[in-house]
Amino acid sequence: MNIGLVRHFKVNCTTQKFMTSADFEKWTEQYNISYIVENGIELQNIKWSKCFSSDLPRAIKTAETIFKEKIITTHLLREVPLSPVFKIPFKLPYVFWCITGRLAWLFNHKSQPETKKMTTKRILVFLDTIEHEADHNLLVVCHGFFMHAFQKELKSRGNISFRIYI
User: pLDDT, tens digit, for every residue of 55-101?
Assistant: First the structure.
């Protein structure tokens, strides 16, 4: 099996340099529904048999742009949700919220709606569902942070080749 991993196109969603925890929560909600900025991507003239996509709008639109046949959407490929580590009324840098949220996920902090174990389980369920596609080239359109966890699982299986298209 050959998998082409594609991160969705850039999202047209601006950020403030400083945000409260509530501002950051609103921003993540807005990001999830924002439009993408379409651009070209070179998939090296490989004949892709199927395309699987996260069911979030930015991934679906990216998939529709690069794959002209039927796209199979699934919640299993969604981005790892990101929440502020704590609730505070004063503003901190946007990058602080992103980094601490991802570190909290890594250490299974209660502030995050999904644990690392839950993310890994989603990935394993998805890989199990495509196991029968061993003779095919599959495109998988997902999200940046999720992609890192996904690659780790692909490497641990060892029998699946993959390429990353960002």
Answer: 999 999 999 999 999 999 999 999 999 999 999 999 999 999 999 99
Question: Any residues with CB less than 8 A from the CB of 163 and at least 6 apart, and which?
Answer: 2, 3, 4, 5, 44
Give the domain ranges of the chain: 2-165
38-67 burial code (b ≥16 CB/10 A, e <16): eeeeebeeeebebbbbbebebbbbbbebbb
Q: Letter for the amino acid at 136?
A: H
Class of domain 2-165: alpha beta
Tell me how far apart the alpha carbons of residues 58 and 125 are, in angstroms, rounded to a whole number.
Answer: 22
Q: Enumerate residues 6+ apart whose C-beta is below 8 A from 37.
A: 9, 10, 11, 12
Q: Indicate whether 104 pLDDT > 90.
A: yes
